[in-house]
Amino acid sequence: MNAPGLLAFPKGYFDDLCEGKRSILSWIDEASELEIDGIEMYPHFYPKISQREIAEIHDYARSKKLLVPMMCTSPDFTKPRKEEREKEIDQMRFWIEVMGKTDVPGRIKTCRVLSGQRRPGISRSDGESWVIDAIEKLIPCAEENEVHLVMENHYKDGRWEYPEFAQFPDVYEDIVDSIHSKWFGINFDPSNALVSGQDPIELLKRFRNRVLTMHASDRHLKPGYTVRDLEKFSGKGYPEALEHGVIGTGLINYDEIFRIIRDSEFSGWISIEDGVNGHEDLVASVSFLRGMLSKYFGENATPRKRH
Could you tell me which residue ranges the Xylose isomerase-like TIM barrel domain spans (predicted)? Predict the structure, then answer.
């Protein structure tokens, strides 16, 4: 069994990369010094949205011995007007084709799908219907390009006004359970589950056989708060008791997560979302996850050679 690969997503540089205050090439240079296999990208990190410019950036990453197997796309399929939803579908087709042209030998390539924003006035039945319809329309493109669509249990995209329509488990499960294709699966995010008032372990157990990729981060209780404060959280907004921290030192039970994914023969990608508090935290998180991969996947968990 192949061990999961380890990627990094520049959570700490998110705004600077989106606003062009930092070059994506400089992030790739920094990432190349980490003990990882590749990076996860986000559409707004690219200075220009064209197949040629994107391919050049991916080629640069590959020259640094980094793969680009995950695209963190954020489609918004709950826009009330049908023509607006069709535009979101067309944009997703573009990114699926981008990933189809990206060289990732022998491993899966993915584009993230979300439900969309939980706008006031949208009924559950309408929202679920729109999201399912949009994802099903993307399946043929995903199959043609050999790119998997992964729906994340999500809280809120950094550029959205409203939280995720499918933030809560009943809506998320309705959508996931309605789509039956080998080109569709799940991007599991344990911290998002915690933020939404869910048990990350129970969510993983529920979908363990459909998880293709995973986001790794951790949350800590802020000073002055207790677990009881977190238990009172309703899932609306962001719990003020939580803050980002080094993976493996917070509330997420990574030993149990790694036991479950090993027993499920998971061999996809684990993408680190860290660095909010500085580069040192990201380095520490990489080290922790490398240790977990070695512990649960043994000799298969060695990173790609840099030279």
Answer: 28-290
